[in-house]
Amino acid sequence: MDERYSPVQDLRRHHRRLVLRSLRDDGPQPRADLARRLGLSATTMTKVVGQLLDEGLVAEDAVEGAGQRVGRPSTGIRIRTDARYVIGVQVGAGTVHLGLCDLRAQVGPRASFTFDVATERPERVVATIAQAAAELAADVPADRLLGIGVAAPGPVDPGHRRILVSVNLGWRDVPFADLLEAALDVPTVVDHNVRAMALAESRYGETAGADPLLYVYVRTGVGAGLVIGGYPFRPGAYGVTELGHLRVLEKGRPCACGATGCLETVVSEPYLIERLGRRSDNPLADIPDGLLDDLVDHLTTGLASAVNLLNPELIVLGGIFAPAPEAVFDRVRAALRAKAFPVLRDVVRVERPTVGGDSAGVVGGAAVALDCFLYER
């Protein structure tokens, strides 16, 4: 339902967002410091903080440090991270991971299940997600569960309501959010999986502040998500950047998308399993040098195009690269430097993720839900 607000209500909501975002990004702060930082009057700050205290979203605690007057302990405002919760959901090719997350997107109880991509219909997958989510949130009062964020593969529609197409799942036009809301009666938002990971890294990672931030996730395929100015970049009608479908080989292998020579046909977990003849939790730890050279060459061909077009300050390389030895990252950095435009290559850094670990998509889904239902509401 379309919510409409008066100008006064809009202004109050804006002030509320400013305060919550500052507390999220900059940590606990005295009221006076917070007001100065945000350019708000003492009266406005009193009203906003009073409302947030009434809702239980923030707390006021003693703060030690400079500026504290003798005999009068200073107090600071902080977000109560356990005041509300969201559920983050990561949908992959045959796997789903869920986690109950707090207001800092920290993952608590988790659940996972697998499904057969060839035979399982999306409606059945949604039903299983709903059951698992209900179990995770069984001890959370309904008014403290803000919503569910789903990090899903493939382009999603502009309203974050449906998955338009996922070549690795074989799904088309799936009203994912509507199905999950109908099953659970909990507000749900769906976003592109790697864009959600990029948002989580930008919001809650050690790399926060890098701008633009390009997140590249290599697993079943190669996905990318871009954050510019602190917000996800959603280009075109469907807001997706399909790095994995850049053509890197003239006479390459067929891709699930219907083209040939796509990056993800030669840089992906299935490709490595095929070449190595085995699965591994860390396939890049003991990969033959020749195969690693080819992998890095193909990957950095794609990354160089991204650098030359987007000029990111930071590339976060996740998925199968997240646990890789630092020597692998050194090879990627050197190869990328040799291919990218001279000025741009001096700016960009390549690092591993600092948020989520194996649950990067869960934290990504949580970050999307927190933005949608609290911090950007």
Automatic annotation (TrEMBL):
An MF annotation (GO) of this entry: kinase activity
UniProt similarity note: Belongs to the ROK (NagC/XylR) family.
Lineage: Bacteria, Bacillati, Actinomycetota, Actinomycetes, Streptosporangiales
Keywords: Kinase, Transferase
InterPro entries: ATPase_NBD, ROK, WH-like_DNA-bd_sf, WH_DNA-bd_sf
Protein name from the UniProt record: Putative NBD/HSP70 family sugar kinase
Domain of life, source organism: Bacteria
UniProt keyword Translocase present: no
Organism: Nonomuraea polychroma
Keyword Chloroplast among record annotations: no
